[in-house]
Every structure is written in structure tokens, then in C-alpha cells.
Amino acid sequence: QRSKLSMVVLGHVDAGKSTLMGQVLVQLGNIEKRIVNKFQKQAADIGKASFALAWVMDEDDSERERGVTMEIATKFAKTKTHDLTILDAPGHADFIPAMITGTASADVGILVVASTVGEFESGFTTGAGQTREHIVLARGLGVSQWIIAVNKLDAVEWSQQRYNDIKNQLTPFLQSSGFNMKRVSFVPISGLLGINVKERQEQKAQALFKWYSGPTLLEAVDNFVPAQRNVEKPMRLIITDVYTEGKGVVIRGRIVQGVLQTGDRIVVLPIGDEDNVVRVQTASGMGLDGVVVAGDFVDVIVHGIDVVRISPGCIVSHAHSSLRPPIVTRIQAKILLMGELGMPVIKGSRMLMHMHSLDVPVVLSKLLSQQKQNNNSTVQEKPRILSAGASATVEIAISERICMEAYNVCRPLGRFVLRRYGDTIAVGMVEKVF
């Protein structure tokens, strides 16, 4: 039985994420060699020869020109045991909202770190580095299985000491962020040269295989445990895109729980428009036609709903009133604050709440309690201010009606991130909805 996994690829800007994923697709035979040759020629023409593989993922002209990923690039691939949906997320701080969208729809992840001297440090040291923020966000958004791809190790002559340095710096941080280290593996690679990605290629990197005997990157991907799917729960589809095609409207998104079939009566929330499903298929073209299940990225075709009324972040459920998620403007949630806060968090603080494909302005309307990081036993009731690193129970007022559910009812609709002025403040999970 093959398993379906969606895999997000994270890392600091310029760690080599898009190049590595281009290499993976080439080695899995998903991209023809002639296309890569064409990219190599075009990239060399604008003086960016080493970017050719990244162009497999970065299809936008401005992304290619700048050499920076801005949107989530989605590609489908098959390994020995999994059907993968690969989500290549932006590493740049300005595009964290896009990175949150990608991570929220992933089951597993690869964190790419560059091992060149100075580059790993700039990604991981406090303050400017994206590597730390990506790790905390990934944990808060529920991605628990990780491969840490130690990339560009060829640039430091496959140094075992450098590999161990990086491993020893990341491990305690991953543990303190709540990761189970049995589900995290470290793999040394060179994405540009394709060494230890699919095959070991020992003749090209003898220095590496003198000390490394573990799996290649794709072997480590095959070792991922299949994700648990809630197929028996009421159907929830999170919309990521919508467009017209012919007479119909195509709703694209990911089913996070339940089952959907052609002919089902559905409703798009919070707008409340109902229609019958004319056709449904998986976006990758793999799988049964007419039936899609939790974990699938799908295209749902309907005829009776106006495309203007639907936007990314809307939720599709079955139309019967008992099967719909609640539409709320107030929630009680448990949040975990980041270790460093630029400004104090008090009652009345305004923030942006990011969840799956949505971002909505919110206000912290009540601070109910907090537990400080260093001292788990004492709970402080009704604190005036929330401290960095603490976990707190708060009430949040949301500026518009959106679908949310308690975390124990539907995990993807019960997880969120709070940000302010471009900084991540907290990750949270919904306890109650009002």
C-alpha cells in the first residue's frame, strides 16, 4: 500500500531549497533532461548558471531573476513508498505568510541548512535568522517528522566536524521546540551536485563516505511514517485557489478530513452558498476519479456558485447542517509565546492571525492565565502582561466571521500563528469556539 504525503521544504533564504528539489525531481525522472538543459542554457545567459535546477521549482520570471522563491511551488513525485506532493516554501522573511500556508498543509518536512561557514550561522543565530522561526512555526503547525538536509557540504570538503557542529547546535533547539528526535534525521548532501540525494555516488565524494554510512535523502524520505488520516470524520476542504473554467468554477484545495465524491451536496463557508459537485479529481491526476479522501490535493468543479464570492481560506463541507463546521468571531485558545518578543503582549494587543490560507486581524480580548517557561507548576491567573516563552490561555476576538474548530475536533482548523509587524509572536491551538 503506497502512502500519500505532502512534504514542505523549508530553510533560510539561499540555503539551496529550490535547487535541491529540482535535483530530486530530475533524479526521480519527473523532469526530462532536455528541460534542464534548456534551463541551464537560459540561466547561463543571464549569468546565473548555478540556478538552473532551482528553475524547475521557481517558475515565475521575477523569482528567476532575483533567485528568490516567493510563492509556494507545488510538484508531484513518486518515491519507492510514497506519492509525494512537494511544497517548496519561500525562505525569505518577507514571505513568511506564504511559508505558513505551505507548512499548514504538510504532513512531513525537509529543513535545508547550508553548511558553508557563515551561512548556517546567519540562518540560525538569533534575530535575523529564518531557520529558528521556521522550526518553531513548523512545530506549531503540526509537522512532526523532519529530515534536516545539511546542504553544500561539498563546499567545506565534506567535513565531518562541520556536520557534527551543525547537528549539535540544532539538536537542543529542536528538542526544546518540542520535537521527538526519533522522528528527525540528519542527512549530509550536495543539492547542486546531486551527491547523496538519490544515490550515494561514492566515487565523487570519497571524503564523505569515509565517515557517513546512513541513508541518502530519498531513502530517508521513504522512512517517513505514513500520516494518520481522519477519513471517518465530517469532510473539510480548505480552499487554496479558485478560478473559472468553461461553464464551471474550479475550487482547488486540500481535504483535511473525511471523503468527498462526485454528486455530493456541498456548502462553501462562511458565505453559505450550496451546490452539487459536478466532478472531483485529485490535482496530481493520481488516484480514483470521482472519490477523494483526507490528505488529497483536489480540484472540485461546481456550476452554481459565483466565483467572485469564493476566496482562498474558505472551507467546503457537506451541506447538511449537522456536518458543517462552526462559524465564529471569538475563540478561547492556548498559545505558546516566542522566546523573544520585541514588544509586550497585553490585553487589547492587535495582531494578524494566520491559519492555513487565511490571515485575519484579531485582538487579544482576555488574558485568562499563563505558565512561565522556567516554572511549570504555578499558573498565574489573569496576568496583566504575557512573558516571552510562556504558555498562556487567552480569549481572541476575530474581526470577521471565519470557520474554526477546537483542535481536538479538527486539527487543521484548530491551529494558528499570531504575528505582528512582520514578527511571529505565538503559535496556538483552539480550545473552545463561541
Beta-strand content estimate: 35-45%
Bulk shape: globular
Give the rounded overall mean pLDDT. 87
Largest sheet: 7 strands, antiparallel
| N- and C-termini, Cα separation | 41 Å
The helix content is: 10-25%
Strand order of the largest sheet: 11-10-15-7-8-14-12
The total count of strands amounts to 24
Q: How many helices in DSSP terms? A: 9
Helix-strand makeup class: alpha+beta
Spatial extent as radius of gyration: 22 Å
Any low-confidence stretches, pLDDT <50, length ≥5?
A: none
Structure at a glance:
With 434 residues, the chain is α+β, with helices and mostly antiparallel strands. Helices cover 20% and strands 36% of the residues.
Describe the structure.
- The chain has 434 residues and is an alpha+beta fold.
- Helix content is 20%, strand content 36%.
- A 7-stranded antiparallel β-sheet has the order 11-10-15-7-8-14-12, with no helix packed on it. Strands 2-3-1-4-5-6 form a 6-stranded mixed β-sheet, sandwiched between helices.
- It is globular, with a radius of gyration of 22 Å.
- The protein starts with a strand and ends with a strand.
